[in-house]
Design brief:
single chain, mainly alpha, two-stranded antiparallel sheet, 6 helices, 3% strand
């Protein structure tokens, strides 16, 4: 791999641009706005305001969606899921699993799932 290509990859990862672009694409597909460029500009403005704690960060899913997803992962209704199930759920949503701090012997409850996702 050429040095320039590696620098480009490092830049993208350092600024988490693939995750941002994936999230923006998911927001577009979920909401399907009539004016997608304006929608993206507004979403980026909400991200900027959310990072400054001046507004709400634009979320793709609401509490009801998260609860429904948790129920799909908790197929036997135990009230918790395993870290492996959690990782698969994040992958399904297109979210990163790199920074997970859960050991394999931990049970993840609904409130933790909602907060983390």
């Amino acid at each position: 791999m050429a040095a320039g290509e590696q620098q480009g990859r490092d830049y993208l990862q350092r600024h988490r641009l693939p995750q941002l672009l994936h999230r923006l694409g998911a927001l577009l597909l979920y909401h399907r706005p009539e004016r997608p460029r304006e929608f993206l500009i507004q979403a980026l403005e909400r991200v900027k305001a959310g990072k400054r704690a001046e507004g709400e960060y634009p979320y793709l899913m609401d509490e009801a969606n998260l609860a429904a997803m948790f129920e799909l992962l908790d197929v036997v209704g135990q009230g918790h899921i395993t870290p492996a199930q959690y990782r698969e759920g994040l992958k399904t949503l297109g979210l990163s699993t790199e920074d997970l701090q859960f050991g394999d012997d931990v049970n993840i409850m609904l409130d933790v799932f909602k907060e983390e996702v």
